[in-house]
TrEMBL record:
Species this protein is from: Lotharella globosa
A single BP term in Gene Ontology: UDP-N-acetylglucosamine biosynthetic process
Gene Ontology MF term list: calcium ion binding; UDP-N-acetylglucosamine diphosphorylase activity; UTP-monosaccharide-1-phosphate uridylyltransferase activity
Domain EF-hand intervals: 8-43
EC number(s) from the headed UniProt entry: 2.7.7.64
Catalytic reaction equation(s): a monosaccharide 1-phosphate + UTP + H(+) = a UDP-monosaccharide + diphosphate
Domain of life: Eukaryota
Protein name from the UniProt record: UTP-monosaccharide-1-phosphate uridylyltransferase
Keywords annotated in UniProt: Nucleotidyltransferase, Transferase
Length: 650
């Protein structure tokens, strides 16, 4: 609608032209006017300009006659005039960015740039924040706005991101922890450990758990009170020891690099946890901390940046999603550096899954055997289960490439209705979905990973998920933002890339800790998995019991659950096996040369740490064996009721 048809716009015209005629001369230089005018108004200015001067009344009349001149144009002019008035406060790059943002739908940010606020330096505060986000997002905030408008329109119109694709069961390998083929793949993976790098995505606080600290500081179990971060570092160091086992020359010993993605909330506490504990035995230069930033929140379908309520100079920001781990691996130069230094495989895992390292060597072995560029560790999935699934998406038209990727559960059933079984149905033989469940544990080939990040500047494809308050999808309930997920990385891969999965029993590789007791009780009643502190601890003990049973150790009373605060938790012997004792099944077997001579009762506690060999043991009590570095301990001909003081110290 043109200006002449809007009374509100007419008033705005008068306000803007009063601002333009600051010197009360009725004219303005064409050059100065062009600096504050939107690009598509330049032709109107050129029509009116004479001798490089513009008569403002003539310009106003010309604009009122144009149907394609809108009040949005006036907002931009008004914004740029306010920016001009605050120019003495700002650096040249801040002025430039402010003008650019005004041209890209953000003129509302400058409405409060008046003389009083300028005196208090408030415009400077806003521009420092905007310039920070502009510098950290590939392509700058203009690229962020451009992408947001496209994605918001797709969301509003209900566009299906998987339109034109048909799902098929992806290429992968099913592993059972107690089968021979697991051993084969684990041995292949052990041989690759010398070329491994590890990335922990640890941006979260424990608020959902009712805990105010960082999640990686939580204990896996209360027998030894080992926290997650220590446990992860211990595992990497144990893998490193295996990789260097037969290397005699110190110069040729490898250090397995470890990167941790933090957030603004978790960065300093993570640094403190590491420093207070001597980096848990890992050299400081072996660890890289990468702090994730946030992105501007969006208040409407025009991708207008949201400001905080009551403060127009404070930008609302939100997390960009855990897909930022790829942006950080690129911006810190780690992907390229690791690949050049000899790293072949990069494993990504999340902050509170204490079982993940049981599976990583075998998962690497599958990557080697199947030559996978991307390998998603997954678990068997029940139809209808609220968890994403790994699917192979085959295009109906040849213009698109095949895509093996995680499909979120809220999009999955609609996609699977295009298959012959017409939905998320169980396999007749297994009773499970043929599409394995995603647990966000990934193993990538390092070299193509670095190259793909170079091409995308570290950005994986983004999405928006606004919640609307109207049927027309024009009004948001609250501001949204662009998001990205680390498991969407395969979208960056070339068509020739081999992408697949490794599926393993849930008990062996996945037990998340993320819910408080109330939420865990409700979730357990729906899914059978409470995913809380007590279930995580119980699952860890159970996994260790099952590993011992798999190699022939007699473990009594396994397989029973007991409700703790209404949450079903596995009960049985509390078995803690440190990574320095056994970080793989092959190593575990060597620690029990005669497993048939080892018996553990259901009420026992067993802690094994370091170079310990168990030849003969009947345990009905507590046994804590810690071998200091360089020491070897052999347990033989031992019947134990209680060993070690009850406070748990040797």
């Amino acid at each position: 609608m043109g200006l002449a048809q809007s009374e509100e716009a007419k008033e705005q015209v008068e306000t803007v032209f009063r601002m333009l005629d600051m010197e009360r001369t009725g004219s303005m230089s064409a050059k100065d006017l062009a600096a504050v005018a939107p690009a598509d108004l330049k032709s109107v200015i050129d029509e009116v300009a004479k001798d490089e001067k513009v008569n403002l009344n003539e310009l106003k009349e010309a604009m009122m006659k144009k149907d394609d001149v809108t009040k949005e144009h006036l907002m931009i002019v008004s914004a740029k005039l306010r920016i001009q008035g605050c120019k003495p406060l700002l650096k040249p790059e801040e002025v430039k960015l402010a003008r650019t943002l005004a041209d890209h739908g953000q003129a509302h940010l400058f409405k409060s740039w008046d003389e009083n606020n300028a005196k208090e330096g408030k415009p400077k505060t806003l521009m420092v924040s905007l310039l920070n986000y502009h510098g950290k997002y590939p392509g700058g905030l203009t690229e962020y706005i451009k992408k947001a408008k496209v994605l918001l329109e797709s969301s509003r119109s209900g566009k299906n991101p998987f339109e034109g694709y048909k799902p098929e069961v992806p290429h992968g390998q099913q592993l059972n922890y107690t089968d021979k083929n697991f051993d084969e793949f684990e041995i292949k993976g052990i041989n690759e450990l010398k070329s491994a790098g590890f990335v922990l995505v640890a941006g979260g606080l424990g608020e959902r758990l009712g805990y105010g600290g960082i999640k990686v500081a939580l204990p896996l179990e209360i027998t030894t009170m080992t926290c997650y971060l220590k446990f992860y570092i211990d595992n990497i160091l144990a893998f490193q020891a295996l990789a260097n086992k037969d290397v005699t020359d110190t110069k040729h010993k490898v250090k397995l690099p470890f990167a941790i993605m933090t957030s603004g909330d978790t960065h300093e506490p993570t640094v403190k946890l590491l420093e207070d504990n001597g980096y848990f035995g890992m050299p400081k230069d072996q660890i890289t901390l990468m702090q994730q930033d946030k992105v501007p929140a969006l208040s409407n379908n025009d991708a207008a940046f949201a400001v905080k309520k009551g403060d127009p100079f404070a930008l609302q920001t939100k997390p960009h999603g855990h897909g930022d781990v790829h942006l950080l691996m690129h911006s810190h130069g780690l992907a390229k550096k690791w690949a050049k230094s000899g790293v072949k495989w990069i494993s990504f895992f999340q902050d509170t899954n204490g079982l993940v390292f049981n599976a990583l060597p075998a998962c690497m072995g599958v990557s080697v055997a199947l030559d996978l560029e991307v390998n998603s560790l997954s678990v068997p999935r029940k139809p209808g289960e609220a968890v994403g699934a790994i699917c192979k998406l085959v295009p109906e038209k040849t213009s698109k490439n095949e895509l093996t990727i995680n499909v979120e559960y809220n999009q999955l059933d609609a996609l699977l209705k295009t298959t012959p079984v017409k939905g998320d149905a169980a396999d007749t033989k297994t009773g499970l979905s043929p599409y394995p469940g995603n647990i966000n544990v990934l193993v990538f080939k390092a070299e193509p990973y670095a190259k793909n990040l170079d091409k995308s500047n570290g950005i994986v494809p983004e999405f928006v998920n606004p919640k609307y308050s109207d049927k027309e999808k024009k009004i948001f309930k609250k501001p949204t933002r662009l998001e990205c997920m680390m498991q969407d990385y395969p979208r960056l891969c070339e068509a020739k890339a081999k992408i697949g999965f490794t599926s393993m029993e849930r008990w062996a590789c996945f037990s998340a800790v993320k819910n408080n007791t109330t939420d865990a009780k409700a979730k357990a009643s729906k899914t059978g998995f409470g995913e809380s502190g007590c279930t995580g601890e119980g699952d860890l003990y159970r996994a260790n019991r099952k590993k011992l049973a798999a190699i022939g150790v007699s473990v009594d009373g396994d397989g029973k659950k007991e409700n703790i605060l209404g949450i079903p938790c596995w009960q049985g012997a509390r078995v803690c096996l440190s990574p320095s004792f056994a970080s793989t099944m092959q190593q575990l077997k060597s620690r029990f040369p005669t497993p048939d001579k080892v018996k553990i009762s259901a009420t026992s506690t067993l802690v094994l740490d370091g170079d310990v060999t168990i030849k003969n043991l009947e345990l009905d009590g507590a046994l804590i064996v810690v071998a200091q570095p360089g020491a070897q301990v052999v347990v033989d001909e031992t019947k134990v009721g209680w060993v070690g003081p009850k406070d748990g110290h040797m």
